[in-house]
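Homework help board

Subject: predicted structure for assignment chain

Our instructor gave us this sequence and asked us to write out the predicted structure in token form, then describe one feature. I got the tokens but I'm not sure how to describe them. Can anyone check?
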Amino acid sequence: MENKRKRIGIFGGTFNPPHLGHLIVAEHVQSMLSLDTIYFVPSFISPHKRRGEETLAAHRLKMVRLAVGNRKEFNASDIEILAKGTSFTYATVEAFRRRFKGAKLFLLIGADNFVEFQEWKFPERIVRQATLVVMTRPDYDPRASKSVFSSSAKFLRVPHIEISSTDIRRRIKQGKTIDHLVPEKVRKYIAQHRLYQ
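My token output:
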């Protein structure tokens, strides 16, 4: 069992591909909450996305590893990709709890995900195991949420970055540049493996 880090963030997503926006908001949360590390956890199949992304699972994991690099405050986790099947957050959080006994876990989600959080699988198990950190935009009012989990959540404003994985994939398909949208190593990896064309 590993127990070197006491404050651990869990940042899940498809990361298809990971981009600079992911790194900027994670860096902000890590600093604001004094987290020892944030694990980026690419899903195998997200329950909130359409099927097909599992075919890129190995590439997405590799790109996340390239994106986080050797920074001690960021790590990549292959836990959901190795598990295969649909990636449920409650199972991931419980796996982190078993691995990092005694650590304080923080689950990072966007405000758009929080709207649907009560419909996730076993949300009550998630908030028992981890502090729910909702990354919001400056214009987001947490009081507007009717979620029963609002009292369990920590709302944290993060920089609003106009970068999306969907737009990056579209730009590649159209032959446009993605310079300054993804880390350079990720850009080279996408080009080398002719992804999203």
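Reply (TA_rk): Your tokens look well-formed. For the description, you could write something like this. The chain has a mean pLDDT of 91. That's the kind of observation they're looking for.
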